[in-house]
Design goal:
With 352 residues, this protein is an alpha/beta fold. It folds into two domains: 3-188, Aldehyde Dehydrogenase, Chain A, domain 1 (3-Layer(aba) Sandwich), CATH 3.40.605; 190-317, Aldehyde Dehydrogenase, Chain A, domain 2. The protein has twelve helices and eleven strands. The protein has helices at residues 3-18, 34-51, 57-70, 73-80, 106-115, 130-141, 168-177, 201-212, 234-240, 250-265, 299-308, 345-351, and strands at residues 92-96, 118-122, 149-151, 161-165, 183-186, 190-194, 222-228, 270-272, 277-280, 290-296, 313-317. The protein has a six-stranded mixed β-sheet with strand order 8-9-10-7-6-11, sandwiched between helices. Strands 3-2-1-4-5 form a five-stranded parallel β-sheet, with helices on both faces. The radius of gyration is 21 Å and the shape is globular. It holds the Pfam family LuxC. Keywords: NADP. It comes from Algibacter mikhailovii. InterPro entries: Ald_DH/histidinol_DH, CoA_reduct_LuxC. GO terms for molecular function: acyl-CoA dehydrogenase activity.
Length: 352
């Protein structure tokens, strides 16, 4: 299959996903194989929710919209244009996927196939329904993909390279286990925001999207903010209050109650508003329903500190802090060329 054929197949997948990306799921005209796949995928959304309580319909649809927006002809062509993608004998690339948010491993899956390699997928048990269905749709719109996509729950064997995502502990295991293979190994990372105190209400409302989307479970979710000495949190709490219905979700409420009890019993200082807590803490990874914060006195000093800890940070959200910053509200809307951990997976895949 030629590169443009592969691109066209993913464009058709994006068209298919677009039907499910809004609150009103509706069957569109002129979508290839819709009669075969539409009802099945609509039912699968319910199964995914029942299987994983964190995968609400709202969050699944947010992920589907993000991917339908990304999988356009313009975006895919722009993404691959800088690379010299030659049609060479395909390699077998294993992907070990995380399951913290819906379709979190899709970018790796897409990258392997767009290059022309074969993909061997080991999914997380938390997110095992959506991707195999979408892979089957790809095989219908581009039959040459058949034999290039394999899902397994067994021990990975017969692969030439691996992309594996997990916790800090599993990453160490991956590094040992795959030390003889070309690999990208990803571990825990978190995202931070830098506030100056001059943010508008809209800025802070947008930041709340970075904090609460997917319940804060993604590595691109902001789990910690840095604020100037003497910062008053009144405007911050007012700007995030529209997220208060999140406390009606049982899994979130259970975590909120548990973490609040721990903080109270430990006599930790924290601020809370009935559905969310903020706590001064030097760590980057905050529990669900909690945001850590830390004061700074000098932005230049803060830049130095964050540079020394860049291996723990996925995104920096700010306005005018540094050249690689991400705008408020944009962490969960990455482009195809926004690579996890700043590791260019296409360059890696072309080199194996």
């Amino acid at each position: 299959m030629q590169l443009q054929e592969r691109i066209n197949a993913f464009v058709k997948l994006g068209d298919f996903l677009r039907q499910f990306s809004n609150q009103d799921i509706s069957k569109a005209e002129n979508i290839e194989f819709n009669d075969i796949f539409f009802d099945g995928f609509k039912h699968l959304l319910k199964i995914a929710q029942e299987h994983n309580g964190w995968f609400t319909l709202e969050n699944i649809q947010f992920a589907l919209k993000s991917w339908s927006d990304a999988l356009t002809l313009e975006n895919l062509n722009k993404w691959v244009k800088p690379y010299n993608i030659e049609e060479t004998p395909p390699k077998q690339v294993a992907i070990i996927m995380a399951g913290n948010i819906p379709l979190v491993g899709f970018h790796d899956f897409l990258s392997v196939l767009i290059i022309g390699h074969r993909v061997l997928v080991k999914q997380s048990s938390n997110d095992k329904h959506l991707l195999p269905f979408l892979a089957k749709y790809l095989e219908y719109v581009a039959p040459k993909f058949k034999g290039h996509i394999v899902f397994t729950e067994e021990k990975l064997e017969g692969f030439d390279a691996v992309i594996a995502t997990g916790s800090d502990n599993t990453a160490r295991y991956f590094e040992y286990y795959f030390k003889g293979k070309p690999s990208i190994i990803r571990n825990n990372r978190n995202s931070v925001a830098i506030l100056s105190g001059n943010e508008t209400t809209d800025d802070l409302k947008n930041l709340s999207e970075d904090i609460f989307r997917y319940y804060g479970l993604g590595c691109r979710n902001v789990s910690k903010i840095f604020v100037p000495k003497g910062y008053k949190f009144d405007s911050f709490f007012e700007s995030i209050y529209h997220w208060n219905p999140i406390i009606n979700k049982a899994k979130y409420a259970n975590n909120y109650d548990y973490n609040k009890a721990v903080y109270l019993m430990s006599e930790f200082d924290m601020l809370e508003n009935g559905f969310f807590m903020i706590k001064e803490d030097q760590s980057f990874a905050s529990p669900i329903a909690t945001l850590f914060y830390e004061y700074y006195e000098n932005l230049d000093q803060l830049k130095v500190i964050l540079e020394t800890k860049k291996e723990q940070i996925q995104c920096i959200v700010s306005k005018g802090f540094n050249e690689n910053e991400i705008a408020f509200g944009a962490t969960q809307k990455p482009q195809l060329w926004d690579y996890a951990d700043d590791v260019d997976s296409i360059e890696f895949l072309l080199a194996i």
